[in-house]
């Protein structure tokens, strides 16, 4: 007796656990409506759907300009303007990153989107970048998603930059009024 649990050494034990996790994510994201929303967004944006690894759906050829980025995930649907096989060759862990977002959708359901937007705003305030300090991106693996960690900046700097972006603080130029 060596004292080693052979189940830990078996590659099939790890793959079974991964399969069970993917299956749970698959069903929860269908029940919470996230995957249906992802399919609708992908189709509305003109993307072609195909099956991917770990029960993900891959939507390629998305034509809308928002959101930006190489890929984004809604439920179990990874949506991209690009061919995801090519994108994966450039960023080999991008589907792993997007699968982690899929698990975030599983945990949060419809709350994912507003919480993600808040976290993205926080990241921009802290670093000047929407992803570098976004909890969702950090937890999905910044490097896996093609992002990099950035240093934080003082709030004063962020608030001054925000003031320059806000239409209320810009000088208002009015042309001559037309009378009818």
What does this entry look like structurally?
It is a single chain. The chain has 180 residues and is α+β, with helices and mostly antiparallel strands. Helices cover 51% and strands 8% of the residues. It is built from eight helices and four strands. A four-stranded mixed sheet has the order 1-2-4-3. Helix 2 packs across helix 5. The longest helix has 21 residues. It is globular, with a radius of gyration of 21 Å.
How are the secondary structure elements laid out?
Blueprint: H1 6-9, H2 11-31, H3 34-44, E1 48-51, E2 57-60, E3 72-74, E4 77-80, H4 84-90, H5 94-108, H6 112-127, H7 135-140, H8 155-165
Parallel strand pairs: 2-4
Antiparallel strand pairs: 1-2, 3-4
Helix pairs in contact: 2-5
Number of strands: 4
**Helix and strand run:** HHHEEEEHHHHH
Largest sheet: 4 strands, mixed
Helix proportion range? 40-55%
Q: Taking Cα atoms only, what radius of gyration do you get, to the nearest Å? A: 21 Å
Any low-confidence stretches, pLDDT <50, length ≥5?
Answer: 1-10, 172-180
- Trace the largest sheet across and list its strands: 1-2-4-3
Shape: globular
Beta strand %: 5-15%
Arithmetic mean pLDDT: 86
Task: State the distance separating the first and last CA atoms.
Answer: 97 Å
Number of helical segments with 4 or more residues: 8
User: Structural class of the helices, strands and pairings?
Assistant: alpha+beta
